[in-house]
Write a structure and sequence with these properties.
CATH class: Mainly Alpha
Strand content: under 5%
Number of strands: 0
Distance between the termini: 51 Å
Structural class: mainly alpha
Shape: globular
Helix content: over 70%
Largest sheet: none
CATH architecture: Orthogonal Bundle
CATH superfamily: ABC transporter involved in vitamin B12 uptake, BtuC
Radius of gyration: 19 Å
Number of domains: 1
């Protein structure tokens, strides 16, 4: 077999082609929603929510509920619980995430250990796998991406305003709590859809790294959305290919590709991009007006 034939060999397998499409969709989805998550200072919630959904994934079959429906509802309930606890201002967001999600993850491990699973193997759930990607998985990913893109397009200004200055947005008539709930819904659906490809332990990195790199490359919010989505999908494609060739879990290779892109951009920029990324949470001051923030998104 020639080198060229060896390089093209993966494309002759149906399971690899499905995995490749799934990785591209998963990368694009995580890259898109990751911009909103990182700018809100909620990077850790992607990691936590994946662990929470893991608990729902294990519990759903035992309760006689379809896995997608049960795990999705479990994840959304966990996200809303974290939001509610954080809004009480008695407990910080990091502590709320730690309590809710680690308890859910522990419950999932206990249930899977005791009763087993009817879905992917335990290690595949933790680290992702290109094996066993089905047509329904692709439809779920495509539907989640379409849902997220449509929601962010229709409610673009509301999400922009509530992301950069939620307090002023609230008094200006923007339904901030509703925006937060919608974002948690999109995040829950996204984590659930990407779980089989990226794995429980690596979803957070795929949500955060493309968005951080996009911030390193641009000051424009709208451009960040396009860059992060594109970087996520490209890393998904390259990572999936390397996963097949190196026989390493797909989630691992996708995250390593994302990390490599981050290091390359950092090296080329010689630190200036890192300083820009360091200002991810330096949102507009509370005195800013809605029109000014809307203009900042272009």
């Amino acid at each position: 077999m020639t080198l060229w034939q060896s390089l093209l060999d993966p494309f002759g397998y149906d399971f690899f082609l499905k995995g490749l499409v799934a990785a591209v969709l998963a990368g694009a989805l995580c890259g898109l929603i990751g911009v909103f998550i990182t700018l809100r200072g909620m990077s850790y919630i992607g990691h936590g929510l994946s662990h929470a959904i893991f608990g729902g994934y294990a519990a759903a079959p035992l309760l006689g509920i379809p896995i997608v429906l049960g795990a999705g509802a479990w994840g959304l309930a966990s996200a809303l619980a974290i939001n509610a606890i954080t809004r009480s201002r008695r407990i910080g967001a990091d502590a709320a995430i730690g309590v809710v999600t680690t308890a859910s993850f522990a419950l999932g491990v206990a249930l899977l250990t005791r009763f087993g699973t009817k879905g992917p193997a335990f290690d595949a759930l933790l680290f992702g796998s290109i094996n066993g990607v089905t047509r329904s998985d692709l439809l779920l990913l495509a539907g989640a991406l379409l849902f997220a893109a449509s929601l962010f397009t229709v409610l673009y200004r509301s999400f922009l305003f509530s992301t950069f200055d939620p307090e002023v947005a609230d008094v200006s008539g923007v339904p901030v709590r509703r925006m937060d709930a919608l974002l948690m819904l999109v995040l829950s659906v996204s984590v659930l859809a990407t779980l089989k490809i990226l794995g429980v332990t690596l979803v957070a990195a795929t949500l955060v790294i493309p968005a951080v790199v996009a911030r390193m490359l641009s000051d424009s919010f709208s451009r960040m959305l396009w860059l992060s989505t594109g970087l996520g999908s490209a890393a998904g494609a390259v990572g999936m290919y390397l996963s097949f060739q190196l026989e390493i879990p797909s989630g691992t290779t996708i995250v390593l590709v994302n990390a490599l892109v981050f290091l390359v951009v950092l090296a080329i920029s010689r630190g200036s991009a890192l300083r820009r990324a360091g200002g991810l949470h330096d949102h507009a001051p509370a005195t800013s007006s809605a029109p000014a923030l809307a203009r900042a998104g272009h």
